[in-house]
Amino acid sequence: MNTTENITIVLNNPKYPGNIGSAARCAKNMGIESLFVVVHEYPDMEEMKKRATHVASDIVENMRYFYRLDEALSGFNYIVGTTSRLGSARGPVIQPREMAKQIADISQNNRVAILFGPEDAGLNNDELKYCHLLVTIPTSDELKSINLSHAVMILCYEIFTARTPSPNRFTPKLATSFELEGMYDHLKEMLVKINYINPENPDYWMTNIRRFLSRTKLFSKEAQIIRGICRKVERSIENKKA
Amino acid sequence: MNTTENITIVLNNPKYPGNIGSAARCAKNMGIESLFVVVHEYPDMEEMKKRATHVASDIVENMRYFYRLDEALSGFNYIVGTTSRLGSARGPVIQPREMAKQIADISQNNRVAILFGPEDAGLNNDELKYCHLLVTIPTSDELKSINLSHAVMILCYEIFTARTPSPNRFTPKLATSFELEGMYDHLKEMLVKINYINPENPDYWMTNIRRFLSRTKLFSKEAQIIRGICRKVERSIENKKA
Fold it and tell me: Is the predicted pLDDT of residue A44 greater than 50, yes or no?
């Protein structure tokens, strides 16, 4: 069992079906497939599916409904509560990144619920008492209220990235030093031919060019492009002379 | 001028006014106040404001409209393009966290645009050519398509958290070692009195109790609560004896 299979998003009394569907899409974007809702009336299925999009509609279809929060949470080993209000009565509150680190470990062997309150009021103290850990999303003081599905996205994103270590998804192959030196030699010859640099002290001028080209971290293909340009310039000069 | 004043969200041909409003709210949540849109028709103001909520409606009102992408981008020193498609033709693509680190530095002295394509197609190669840096949000392979405003939220959140170093927003005062040892002594006496632990070797049994209590990182107030319980137990025993 991998870690995401052990993670469930639990929405306590969400008011808008659109937010539930949107939360389902966010969860699926980040590899989380399990969604529980605590509601007193069934939310509009069409509205939920519209916002979930076709691909995440299975999450909405398989979503489990509960009438009471304690019933929804009863099968979990570890419960993370989300809150935007901070105070000594609430105990320690950590940020999403730190939460994700802890969850990556705990979810290996435990069922974890990430619990969100209703859009307007959030979780109250009576609901937060079920939680082993409280998390708050840092915001600007100007607007602290985050839309429910966007809060779900940030926590799911942090959980997902905590599990995928690679900082870069794709970097093409950089040019080798051999390729680069060949390119610089070619460039130098060409720049001398077009009288851009002094043939008596070409390396002095090349230093400046090397400096900015090395900062750009050239790829093999790009080194070839530069040599191709040099060849074209040289041929143009030869043709002119001829 | 602080860094967020130098950062602008640029939406290229967004299809849904609701997404523009929602993106405005996300930007404001994360301290970014500037929003540009490239559109051929003015989007519905009411729909945008509804999703922006009252507090972020100023961003929608002050939003700048452009007919062409190159016009929208002309005043920026550094442009970050978002893409979900990876390939060697697109060059190196980094993840949001790494992007945020770079932006935190660059935005000190430069105007930075974070550019997003339309909901369905994203940015094409012709539009990406303006970008100094490409960023992709990591997703599950099951559903790579992220809603526009949620993509805006993730990048704004990363930019915001890169600027606010504190990992914990609020941690109440932990109990001092003096308070804890007083509590453990009190607890030990009480546990001996109630015959829970052997009075000849109490520390052996206390080790297990200390182990789990120390893992919970007790606060001063909580240490006092435990001593209060001990006192109550002791008084109950004395009253019984009397």
Answer: yes
Inter-chain touch B171–A92, beta carbons under 8 Å: yes
Q: Tell me the per-residue pLDDT of A138-171, one tens digit each, with 9 for 90 and over.
A: 999 999 999 999 999 999 999 999 986 655 455 5
Q: For residue A170, is it within any domain? A: no
Write out the E strands in chain A.
Answer: 7-12, 34-38, 64-66, 78-82, 93-94, 112-116, 133-135, 168-170
Partner B contacted by A174 (CB < 8 A):
no
Please identify which residue in the block is written with the tokens 């939920």.
A48
Sheet holding A168-170: strands in order across?
A168-170, B93-94, B133-135, B78-82, B112-116, B7-12, B34-38, B64-66
Q: Which ipTM did the prediction report?
A: 0.76
Whole-number pLDDT of residue B168: 47
Residues A100 and A75 in one domain: yes
Contact A60, A17 (CB under 8 A): no
- Banded model confidence at residue B60, pLDDT cuts 50, 70, 90: very high
CA–CA distance, A63 with A61 (Å, rounded to integer): 6
Same domain, B73 and B142: yes
Helix (H) or strand (E) holding B79: strand B78-82
> Across-strand partners of B174?
B219
* Interface list for B 183-212 with A (CB within 8 A): none
Residue carrying the six token digits 């190159």: B70
**Do A105 and A181 belong together in one domain?**
no
